[in-house]
Amino acid sequence: AFGSSHLKQLLVWDWKGENYLLKEQSHYYDITTTAITADGQCIISGGDDGKVKVWRADSGQCFVTFNDHTAGITGIACSSSTNAFFTASKDGTVRGFDLVRFRNFRIFTPSQRTQLSCVAVDPSGEVLAVGSSRDSTITLFSVQTGRIIDELKGHEGPVTSIAFHPNGTTLVSGSLDK
């Protein structure tokens, strides 16, 4: 699944057959990020409008829209072990959403006010990593408490991507370092 930025459309592709299975008009502004839940049942899209939409993968129906962020969405991470997903935003927050009750259950805020660029959740669903596009910091949060566990500094440029190893012991990050 991916979002077409200029057409504001969500497209789901059969990459082997090289054709799309679903094409839906979605966000008012550009789609900036998409994700698929671990069980494959839902597609989640985030846009420059600050909206997060959840779609049924089988029908393409958007069945819930979250309007909690006040700026564009820059990253989405789905937990493989819980019914939660997380969104990073230029508004400086990460929000945790519950796919059972369809609500925002927690707001994560780094110690320094900054625009956020990416988000990842570890395989256990207990640790959240968030990258900053301004101060080159990666902040680790406890999903359960919402508190900061650690701040990782080492990049010289904005953090552009982060991912946990499937065993949960390693975090890898990419940046615009020179």
Describe this structure in words.
This protein has strands at 2-4, 9-14, 19-25, 31-36, 42-47, 52-56, 62-66, 73-78, 84-89, 94-98, 103-108, 116-121, 127-132, 137-142, 148-153, 159-164, 171-175. By secondary structure, it is mostly beta strands.
What spatial form do the alpha-carbon principal axes imply? globular
| SSE-based structural type | mainly beta
Q: What is the H/E order?
A: EEEEEEEEEEEEEEEEE
Low-confidence stretches: 1-5
| Number of DSSP strand runs | 17
Q: What's the total helix number?
A: 0
Sheet with the most strands?
4 strands, antiparallel
* CA radius of gyration: 16 Å
Provide keyphrases for this structure.
178 residues; mainly beta; 4-stranded antiparallel β-sheet; disordered N terminus
Task: Tell me briefly what this model is.
The protein has strands at 2-4, 9-14, 19-25, 31-36, 42-47, 52-56, 62-66, 73-78, 84-89, 94-98, 103-108, 116-121, 127-132, 137-142, 148-153, 159-164, 171-175. The protein has 178 residues and is mainly beta.
